[in-house]
Amino acid sequence: MNTNADNGNLKFTVDNAERFGSNYNEPDFWKKLKSLAGKAGRKVAYNALLLYYVLTSRDVPVRYKGIIIGALGYLILPIDLIPDFIPVAGFTDDLAALVAVVKMVSDCVDSEIERKAKEKVKELFGN
Questions:
Q1: DSSP 76-125
Q2: 3-class secondary structure, 72
Q3: How far apart are CA 127 and CA 123, in angstroms?
């Protein structure tokens, strides 16, 4: 399954997710999420949080971990085809990658993970 989220010369696909994994670490993930609050909107943050909470779940299959880490690393990656500072459009490539991976791992997204993600979005963005 290929997820086409173009990133200049770097193209996110499920098959090459490990390429972006080196950009992922938890402190940078939380820093990026906090910076999204005024820029990318709830949808990007919510999908990123779903993946984060799936990743931290004990029940996530190993085959999904690398793909999730790759998608979150792609979000953190400072170089984008559509620079993140461009209002609205700047996060479309990130959102495309996140949504595709959320769909792929949807069998791991339970009501507790959804609840945690929604609560964290409220915390980051307010009501």
A1: H-S--SS-TTSTTGGGHHHHHHHHHHHHHTGGG--HHHHHHHHHHHHHHH
A2: helix
A3: 8
Range of the domain at 77: 5-125
Report the candidate in 89, 88, 91 with the shortest Cα–Cα distance to residue 99.
91
Please return the burial class of 118, using the count of CB atoms within 10 Å of its CB with bins 0-12, 13-18 and 19+: middle
Measured CA to CA in angstroms, residue 72 lies from 68, 98, 126, 127 at distances of 6, 8, 23, 25
Give the tens place of pLDDT for each residue, 63-114. Answer: 899 999 999 998 888 665 555 555 555 677 788 889 999 999 999 999 999 9
- The rounded distance, in Å, linking the Cα atoms of 120 and 50 is 10
Count: domains in the chain: 1
22: exposed, middle or buried (Cβ count in 10 Å: 0-12, 13-18, 19+): exposed
Distances (CA, A) of 49 to 20, 67, 107, 127: 17, 15, 16, 17
Q: Please state the pTM of the whole predicted model.
A: 0.78
